[in-house]
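FAQ: What does the model actually see?

It sees only this:
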Amino acid sequence: MSASIFSLFLPAWRMSHSVWFLLQGLGCGIIFIFFSSWIVKKLTENLARRRALLFVFVMALHNIPEGLSVGLDVAALGWEEALPLCVAIFIQNIPEGFVSSLSFFLGGFSLTAALSANALTALIETLSAASGFTFAKTSAVQLPLLLSFAGASMMTVVGHEIYEKKKHGEKFSSLGFFLGLCLCAFLDLFL
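And it is asked to produce this:
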């Protein structure tokens, strides 16, 4: 959330000073994530017994906006100013990777399969970052619009995951969320 605000929305605002670009990007990002979520639900009906494939697909889908955010931020600001977002996403990917591999492993798959699936999602995030960077450098589309799109995609993924956890009665640590938000805000603002 803080990476979206401080490393994507604020640079988009500084570049354009246009609420219109921010709103367009925000709307497109939200629609993109909800449409992607709808596709995943449709695939779930057909692939219920192929849990591993679905799991990898969902994690890869989640990592696309993260990768795009990094690539767009580097294209917009350069490596030095984009470093806080890169570090924040790297830090949050460490526990996320452990948890996703562990849940895959506990689901009955081998350790090699669990680690391989997680590596595949990391590769997709890396390719998304390269794609976002290349697209921003070669596209005629306004960069503030793309930054807003990436930020909205990231925030929608986070918000959707929190909503799903609460809806299904899963444990959710508000304190952990707040501490993570503060850590990422610190990295964004003071690095």
